[in-house]
Design goal:
The complex is a heterodimer of chains A (896) and B (160). With 896 residues, chain A is α+β, with helices and mostly antiparallel strands. The longest helix of chain B has 14 residues, at 2-15. Classes of the chains: A alpha+beta (896), B alpha+beta (160). Chain B: This is Chemotaxis protein CheW.
């Protein structure tokens, strides 16, 4: 294929895309002469060049389309049908061009159908096409001249070449035309666009100083460069950056300063060169949007609803590699918004909205990233339906979806095969796509977020890095090896010390960090890399890199943090690409190769949990341990170590002892605007009058009680082997925790000391409390939960096993609800419930709340099969009370 | 594909003398077709890649390029060399990537004809049989010719 033809193909493809977009604009605003002029000029250019290159089929089609557009210019009313026809013509042109590109020759075939339709339309008021544009004085004289097929004038040629230099806006060409005639023949013989066209443009400048003309002159100063050339340049600059980094590293180690100055200069120049080369890779995001107006227009017609596409910030630039990658996801999302987001016209009118929907596409820079928003003013996501669907499909449990925030729920639409659309349309609704969109965006280090409001619309926000080639990264060390963490994912760094304010705590082996009143799940980089195994449990020190991927926030524990460095991302070897933890590798300033950690991969690992990634034996141990393991708050009081289950504790406070007041011989303190009674945890404790006083606060509803202790010692997670001691009512018993004999405090003993009526609970007014059967094999848990349940207003009966529970149920007709532990020796809680359900009569219909140490998906399924009303984590006291309250509320609702 | 490579190599051996770079692993000597060898260097500063296939020892900066180093011993199912023992690496290219084959040492380049070539004995360890294309009878020792394509064909199948 000769250069001229190749040039023509690239040109034409670009022109046609522009015409697509312009036509849609034109349809909405038929009086906009500049748009029409632009379209007309582009089509005309294509036609002119076709004639010159001997492509009769393309030329005939373009000619017919041009005729119709000429009519528009003369004031012929623009109808949707005519625009559709022209768009169809453009599609045909593109198809022919594609064949031409593949085969090198114009494909055989007839376009008579389109040409006839176009001619028919342009001849409607019986004006011969050839005469059409003659009376268009406001437009360009040169363009107004009509050509017969096959005839090519010098002016056309000249124009064709001129356009080749700058596809977009050109001056109306009035002045340059006569001047242009001279250099044109030279240009016509040149095989590729020669600099010739620039001459007339430059000459034209003094004649026509309109801003448009200046812009055109600007555009003419661009040249086309092969993408490969740019890529090569980019690689070279990347290498240069690396070499410079290495040099700087060497210079840092040497005292000799004689070459510091030139090195600094080299450094600056390299930075500028890098910037410059990066710029050549930058393209306005509008290039990725070009097809969207057409897409929306076609959808609007197909779905018969009015949709307007507003595009803001189309000039925002980003790396062309990134641009290519987001093109399809963007198109998909816009289609989705048009199809699902925007309601039908009727629905909108009923909802009191404007009949036509709007999709707003906007882009802007934000730091090193570009944010793209796709917002519609449609119906918004049906979060209720999504919640239901998520549970139906088993992606999340009922309890999970209820706890989740709306935006978390909205993210379910990114799950594969997830569609809440009632009907499948040809456009979308098949549940494919959104997951692919998310994957594509995440694969380039981007994130996607949803904000939705029922009835008001949905906004998707995509954040992507400007470029993939050079990123800013934090260099960290774990187990003696350095890694690079992309800065884009890093929110902050927290120093961890075994005894400091920030330390890593463990919940059932899962490390967490308290960070500004929130728990942050932690994963150790060494652990992920399987570098060492002896880090579990012991005191942890180092740094936590707080990272965020999408909505997920987590901490990566590393041994050391060095500095941030601009790194050139090199792809992973094909042998290593399957490891999800790495995004690539790079060479640092000192010449060492380091791996680039992929925050997305880590986020997925964090979600899977540290326990499950451990060896199988550990999992078993953990499962066994979960049965009897408890997290306890250990404190000193009355000369001994005491402990209370952490789940019962609301807060731990250090108060100023001088603030303690005494009322009728009872100590009180103003706490959160209320008076809170204080009770010593041991008779031997003397409440201090100065300095600080440690308190363990328990609360229930709006009541709170402060347990006075000498000193808070620790939070311990351990197996509980409680030996019951009967002689003291303030203790459940004693146990060995971390090698120390520790008294386990019975909170139930203290609550009535603070409030006389606490044991009767807020429901004391009720004539008779409902009776609840608590089934748990562990005496400790029975003792632990009984006061809680009593406080919630229940009379509590207990049973230590399934058989005993059945016996109690048969014996006591007052029992109205069963709370059962699922993990019991001999017969499990499931067994018990199954027998209850089989039994028939009153017992089979009793509501059951199940307690479980580990709530897995299969437990949820089994529980549902047995009609268990709720599944609560074993230590979740408030969850249990809430579940009971819900049960209570249900019959009331039915009664009302 | 792998089989095709092997077949293609054998007639070539038969046609005329070919040059091989010899490498040492323990007591054994192997030959690599010289056209495939781009570099011979002492590997240094190897960055380990956690979770990588066992054969891969890590990544090396070879004059500004990141190359993937694989251990010939591990590839052949032999025990690792003693820590601190000398090693040499052979730079190989496959597709657009560069690999470094870490060996115990690199010997001379030998020009060998078809006359000393023997097919791979069938009683050889299956792992070796897949990697070898021929065995040459030399004075006092045997030279096993390795198929570089086969040598580098691992990982993907493990990952999948």
């Amino acid at each position: 294929m000769d250069d001229l033809l190749r040039e023509f193909l690239t040109e034409s493809a670009e022109h046609l895309d522009t015409v697509d977009a312009e036509l849609v604009k034109f349809e909405q605003d038929p009086n906009n002469q500049p748009i029409l002029r632009n379209i007309f000029r582009l089509v005309h250019t294509i036609k002119g060049t076709c004639g010159f290159l001997g492509l009769p089929r393309l030329e005939a089609l373009a000619h017919a389309a041009e005729n119709l557009m000429g009519r528009f210019r003369d004031g012929f009313p623009v109808s949707s049908a005519s625009v559709t026809l022209i768009l169809a013509t453009l599609d045909r042109l593109k198809a022919i061009l594609a064949d031409l590109e593949a085969g090198g020759t114009e494909p055989a075939g007839s376009d008579a159908d389109l040409i006839e339709a176009l001619d028919a339309m342009s001849q409607e008021p019986a004006t011969p096409p050839a005469a059409a544009p003659a009376s268009a004085p406001l437009v360009v004289q040169a363009l107004a001249r009509e050509l017969k097929p096959g005839e090519v004038s010098l002016e056309d040629l000249e124009r064709a070449f001129m356009e080749a230099e700058g596809p977009d806006e050109l001056p109306p060409l009035t002045a340059p035309t006569p001047v242009a005639e001279a250099p044109a023949p030279a240009a016509a013989t040149a095989p590729a666009p020669a600099p010739a066209p620039q001459a007339p443009a430059a000459e034209a400048k003094p004649v026509e100083m309109s801003p448009e003309a200046e812009a055109a002159a600007q555009k003419n100063r661009t040249i086309r460069v092969n993408v490969e050339t740019l890529e090569h340049l980019m690689t070279m600059v990347s290498e240069l950056v690396l070499t410079r980094n290495q040099l700087l590293e060497i210079a840092r180690r040497h005292e000799d300063s004689s070459y510091k100055v030139p090195l600094q200069r080299l450094s600056h120049v390299t930075a500028e060169l890098q910037d410059g080369v990066m710029k050549t890779r930058m393209q306005p995001i509008g290039n990725a949007w070009q097809k969207l107006p057409r897409v929306v227009r076609d959808l609007s017609a197909e779905l018969s609803k009015g949709i307007e596409l507003v595009m803001l910030g189309a000039e925002t630039e980003l790396d062309r590699q990134v641009l290519e990658l987001i093109k399809d996801p963007l198109t998909h999302m816009v289609r989705n918004s048009a199809d699902h987001g925007i309601e039908s016209t009727g629905e909108r009118i009923r909802a009191g909205k404007p009949a036509g929907g709007t999709i707003r596409l906007s882009a802007y820079h934000e730091g090193g990233t570009i944010s793209i928003e796709i917002a519609d003013d449609g119906r918004g996501l049906d979060l209720v339906a999504i919640r239901r669907k998520a549970v139906d499909r088993g992606i999340a449990s009922q309890a999970d979806v209820e706890r989740m925030s709306d935006s978390e729920v909205a993210k379910f639409i990114f799950h594969a095969g997830f569609s809440t659309a009632q009907t499948v349309t040809s456009v979308s609704g098949r549940g494919v796509g959104m997951d692919v969109v998310k994957t594509n965006i995440e694969s380039i280090g981007g994130m996607i977020d949803i904000a939705t409001q029922r009835g008001a619309g949905t906004t998707f926000t995509i954040k992507i890095p400007l470029t993939l080639a050079i990123i800013s990264a934090l260099i960290v060390e774990a187990s003696g090896q350095r890694y690079a963490v992309p800065q884009i994912a890093v929110l902050e760094l927290v120093r961890i010390e075994a005894e400091g304010t920030h330390r890593v705590e463990h919940i059932n082996g899962a490390p967490v960090l308290r960070l500004r009143e929130r728990l942050l799940p932690i994963t150790s980089l060494s652990g992920l890399m399987k570098a060492d195994t002896d880090q579990a449990g012991g005191p942890v020190s180092g740094f936590v890199v707080v990272a965020q991927v999408g909505r997920q926030r987590f901490g990566i524990l590393v041994d050391e943090v060095f500095h941030t460095e601009e790194i050139v991302v090199k792809p992973m070897s094909s042998k290593l690409r399957h490891i999800p933890l790495f995004a690539g590798n790079t060479i640092l300033g000192d010449g060492a190769v380091v791996l680039i950690v992929d925050p997305n991969g880590i986020a997925r690992k964090v979600g899977q949990g540290a326990v499950s990634s451990d060896s199988a034996t550990q999992v078993d141990e953990a499962a066994e341990a979960a049965l009897d393991k408890a997290t306890l708050l250990v404190f000193k009081g009355g000369g001994s170590f005491k402990a209370v289950p952490l789940s019962l504790v609301t807060r731990i406070e250090e108060i100023d002892a001088s603030k303690i007041e005494w009322l009728a011989g009872r100590p009180l303190i103003q706490y959160r605007g209320k008076l809170m009674p204080l009770v010593p945890a041991d008779p031997a404790i003397v409440i201090r009058s100065q300095g600080t006083q440690a308190l363990v606060v328990f609360s229930d509803g709006d009541r709170a009680m402060g347990l006075v202790v000498d000193e808070i010692v620790d939070i311990v997670e351990d197996h509980l082997n409680v030996e019951i001691v009967a002689e003291r009512s303030d203790l459940i018993g004693s146990a060995v925790l971390r090698g120390r004999a520790t008294d386990i405090v019975d909170v139930a003993h203290f609550l009535p000391l603070a409030y006389d009526d606490w044991a009767r609970g807020p429901r004391a007014a009720k004539a008779k409390n409902p009776t609840l059967l608590l089934v748990d094999d562990s005496a400790f848990f029975r003792n632990l939960l009984t006061p809680v349940l009593k406080a919630a207003g229940y009379d509590v009966a207990t049973a230590a096993g399934a058989d005993e529970a059945i016996a109690r149920l048969k014996a006591d007709p007052d029992i109205s609800v069963v709370v059962a532990d699922l993990e019991m020796p001999v017969r499990s809680g499931f067994d018990l419930v199954a027998e209850m359900r089989r039994g028939g009569g009153r017992i089979s219909g009793l509501p059951v709340i199940a307690l479980s140490g580990a709530i897995g998906p299969d437990a949820v399924t089994r529980a549902r099969a047995l009609a268990i009303n709720d599944l609560v984590a074993k230590f979740d006291r408030s969850g249990l009370v809430a579940a009971l309250a819900e049960l209570d509320a249900a019959p009331l609702d039915q009664a009302a | 594909m792998q089989a095709a490579n092997t077949n293609a190599a054998e007639p070539a051996v038969a046609v005329g003398p070919r040059e091989y770079v010899t490498v040492l692993v323990g007591e054994a000597m192997f030959g690599l077709a010289i056209e495939r060898v781009h570099d011979v260097f002492v590997p240094s500063g190897v960055t380990g890649v956690p979770l990588a296939p066992r054969e891969i020892v890590g990544l090396i900066n070879l004059r500004g390029r990141v190359v993937t180093a694989l251990c010939l011993r591990r590839r052949l199912g032999l025990p690792d060399r003693a820590p601190g023992a000398a090693c040499m690496a052979i730079g190989l290219e496959q597709g657009a990537e560069t690999f470094a084959l870490v060996t115990d040492g690199v010997g001379e380049v030998l020009k060998l004809g078809a006359d000393t070539s023997e097919p791979v004995p069938i009683n050889l360890d299956a792992r070796w049989r897949d990697l070898a294309t021929a065995v040459h009878r030399l004075d006092g020792r045997l030279l096993v010719i390795l198929d570089i394509g086969a040598l580098l064909a691992f990982g993907e199948s493990l990952a999948a």
